Structures are given as structure tokens and as C-alpha cells.
Amino acid sequence: GMPVLDFPISEDWHQLILYNDSELDQNFSVPISGNTAFGALGLSANAEYYLYDFWNNKFLGKTAGNVSVLQTVVAGEARMISVHKTEDFPQWISTNRHIMQGYVDLIGKPIWDEGSSQLSGISSVIAGEKYVLTIALNGYNPSSVYAKGVIVDIRVRKDNPQLAELSITSSKNQEVEWNISF
Fold first, then answer.
1. What are phi and psi of 86, to 5 degrees?
2. % helix, strand, coil for the chain, step of 5
């Protein structure tokens, strides 16, 4: 069989696991909206969603809620896809720290402050490992980032100017409060 596992974290964020345990490449088609009893994710048909592939560190783009996630998965591969409802402001859509892409490591989920045009959050960072959080810019441009006691950087991705990466490197295991200005 071809297991599809859906892990709903909130009504706007699901983690989708596609596992091809066969000897051949397989095409998966998972409806974003619709009845979960019939294999759909049960998200809103009227919204749009960002898809991010963890293992391949690949942005799969934006999709309407009334279509299906279509993926060809090679034999023996497990694909972990983060599904986030799109917002009108900068939003995080993935992290490189854990396959759950923020569920474990983002201990303070990022919050957008419209008044100051700032996105802030708290990340659990491991000593000596570069922590990367991927942000969908949604029309905004990052101007600076602040975090205490770590090496921190924000840059727009060359391969896709709709995305930016916040990177944090720490000499010790710690919870890092970060703040990005736009």
C-alpha cells in the first residue's frame, strides 16, 4: 500500500507524510479540502496553502484549497510536507531542525505585529548546528533581525525571492528569542 498520514496541528497547519513502501515510483494525490474519512486533509476549499518538502528542503509552491496535493514519490521514500494556510503578512512555513518543521523546535510560535512590522518567535537551537527557519514574505521585505548571544542572519533566497531564511548559530543549546523587522 501507499500510506498517507495527516497530522493536523491547527486548522491552518497540517504535516502530511507520503510514504512509498513499494518497489516502484508512485503518484500520490491528496485532496486539500473535503472529507477526511475519504483521505482528504479537511482544510478550507476557499483558502490558499503553502507546501514545503522537509527532506528535499524544497518549496513546493502555493496551491488553492480546492485542489489536490500531487507528488511523485520514489520507491522507499518518505516525504514530509508542511501545509500552511497563506497569510497577508510574513509567515514561517518550515524549519530545518526537525521533520515536524516547527512543531518541536518553535517553542514560541512566530507572531506578526502589524504596528511595528515585526515577526518574532522563540526557537530551540542546538549547539553548533545551523538552525534555519523558512519564511514566506507575502510581499514584504526583511530589513533586519535581532537575537541575543547568537550569530543570526536573515536573507532573501536567491532561488526564490518570495522566500527568506532566518539562520541562527549558537555555541550552546538554548532557547533563542528572535525578532525580524520588515
1. -75, 145
2. 0, 55, 45
Bridge-based pairing state of the strands 174-181 and 118-125: antiparallel
> What's the pLDDT tens digit per position in 106-124?
898 999 999 999 999 999 9
- At CA 77, angle to CA 72 and CA 82, rounded to 5? 70
Distance of alpha carbon 151 from alpha carbon 28, whole angstroms: 40
How would you label 111-123 residue by residue, b for 16+ Cβ within 10 Å and e otherwise?
A: ebeeeeebbbbbb
- Over residues 125-181, the pLDDT tens digits come to 999 999 999 999 999 999 999 999 999 999 999 999 999 999 999 999 999 999 999
Burial bucket for residue 169 (CB in 10 Å: 0-12, 13-18, 19+): middle
Helix (H) or strand (E) holding 151, with range, is: strand 151-156
Of 93, 49, 82, 87, the C-alpha closest to 68 is: 49
Locus of grid cell 550569530: 151
Q: Work out the percent of the chain whose per-residue pLDDT is above 90.
A: 80
Q: Are strands 48-53 and 58-64 parallel, antiparallel or unpaired?
A: antiparallel
Question: pTM here?
Answer: 0.90
Q: Rounded to an integer, what distance in angstroms lies between the CA atom of residue 85 and that of residue 55? A: 21
Query: What pLDDT is recorded for position 156?
Result: 97
